[in-house]
Amino acid sequence: MPLLDRTDLRLLLAxxxxxxxxxxxxxxxxxxxxxxxxxxxxQLERRRVFLPFERRIDTGALGYPLLAFVHVHVRQQxxxxxxxxxxxxxxxxxxHGLTGDADLLLRVVAADAEELFAVNRKLLAVSGVERCDxxxxxxxxxxxxxxxxxxxxxxxxxxxAPK
Length: 163
Known about the structure:
The protein is α+β, with helices and mostly antiparallel strands. The protein has helices at 6-17, 23-30, 34-46, 79-87, 113-125, 147-156; strands at residues 66-74, 92-97, 104-110, 129-136. The protein has six helices and four strands, in the order αααβαββαβα. Helix 1 (6-17) runs antiparallel to helix 6 (147-156) and helix 2 packs across helix 3.
C-alpha cells in the first residue's frame, strides 16, 4: 500500500504552492469536502509527513546569515557521546551520519566568520572529534523542495511505498 494516495498528493501540492490556505480554501480548490481535508491533514500529521514548523524559520532573520557545512571525523566508539555534545552547540542546526570519508555532516550557522571559527573550536574540543572540514556556503542555488516529487507522484499515479 502506498504511503500517500492521489488525494494526499493533491493536498500536499496545493499546500506547497500556497501554504497559508485555510482548510475551507483547500477543500474548494481540490473539490472535496472540508471534513475530508481536515481528516487527511490530521492523518498526514500523525504519519509525520509534515516537517516541524521550525524548519521554515530563516536563520538569517535570527542574526545568523552565514551557513557552513562541516564534515566531522570522529572515533566511532564515542559516536553517541559526540552527538550529544554537538547537540549542545546552538549554531549546529542539523546533523547527519554519513558513509564515506567523514562520519558526520553538520549544517552550521553563524553571525560572522569569527563566530564560525569559534564554533569550529567548540567542535574540535568535543572528546572523540578528530578533525573538521568546513565549507562555507556561498549561496543557495536550489532551495529545499519536494514539489517536483509530488508532481511526479501525481503523474505516475503513486508514491513509492515505504520499505
